[in-house]
């Protein structure tokens, strides 16, 4: 079950990374998006390219960081990948994402949804970084689970978009809702399942300890 979950995670994360590299590395800018988004991307080229290529670093490196065997055997690799994940992926991708959120398609609802996502992505990344600086592994793990669940908004968004299309919901209506639905459920699952229930079910003392200290 765990192995299946990890394989699915790699498949989805690499699928979105592959799409991003193909669509923005090899096709003319905005070829595969709504014409209004294409216009907006053309007006903010640095912002969108910085966002996409930095975020690709996060979504590509992230899944490796959750493989316990890799973490334990190659601690230095885990550290360097973590630095690239946070320093390039989350920091650059998040700042550029926040900038692009102010021009997002779908009006104020989309702009707010993506802006809050970007702020939380940056905030959870900062908390994970500060936790590991003070050698607090439990808090680091919990903040990284939250942070990576937000990275996976890129996956959820690209699952919900075709579903809304198949359901016949006009893009103009679907997109603002998806700007929220792509990350709020992820964060809930991260919190309720991975940060609370899972450590409890597996009998690790960390969850209770961390909950007591309010992390
Ligand atoms: C988690 C924080 C993220 C935020 C706040 C965010 C925000 C945004 C925003 C605002 C746009 C422009 C949408 C519009 O103009 O309507 C965008 C586009 C895009 N983002 Fe992100 N994003 C995030 C994560 C990611 C990740 C992890 C990837 C992975 C590669 C990614 C890949 C893309 C791509 C490829 C586009 C262009 C639109 C498309 O082709 O689908 N984003 N993002």
From TrEMBL:
UniProt KW keywords: Membrane, Transmembrane, Transmembrane helix
Q: Which Pfam families match?
A: DUF2306
Asked if Metal-binding is a keyword of the record, the answer is no
The reply to whether Nucleotide-binding figures as a keyword in the UniProt entry is no
Tell me where the transmembrane regions lie: 47-70, 82-106, 112-132, 144-167, 173-194
| Protein name (database record) | Putative membrane protein
Source organism of this protein record: Lysobacter dokdonensis DS-58
């Amino acid at each position: 079950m765990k192995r299946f979950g990890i394989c699915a995670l790699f498949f989805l994360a690499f699928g979105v990374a592959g799409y991003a590299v193909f669509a923005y590395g090899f096709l003319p800018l905005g070829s595969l998006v709504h014409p209004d988004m294409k216009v907006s991307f053309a007006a903010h080229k640095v912002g969108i390219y910085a966002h996409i290529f930095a975020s690709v670093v996060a979504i590509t490196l992230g899944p490796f960081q959750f493989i316990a065997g890799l973490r334990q055997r190659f601690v230095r690799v885990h550290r360097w990948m973590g630095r690239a994940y946070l320093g390039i992926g989350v920091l650059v991708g998040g700042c550029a994402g926040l900038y692009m959120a102010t021009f997002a398609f779908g009006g104020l609802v989309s702009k707010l949804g993506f802006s809050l996502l970007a702020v939380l992505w940056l905030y959870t990344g900062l908390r994970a970084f500060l936790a590991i600086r003070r050698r607090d592994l439990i808090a680091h793990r919990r903040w990284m689970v939250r942070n990576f669940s937000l990275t996976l908004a890129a996956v959820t968004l690209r699952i919900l978009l075709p579903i809304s299309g198949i359901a016949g919901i006009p893009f103009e209506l679907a997109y603002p809702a998806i700007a929220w639905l792509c990350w709020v459920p992820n964060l809930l699952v991260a919190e309720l399942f991975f940060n609370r229930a899972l450590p409890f079910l597996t009998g690790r003392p960390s969850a209770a300890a961390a909950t007591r200290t309010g992390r």
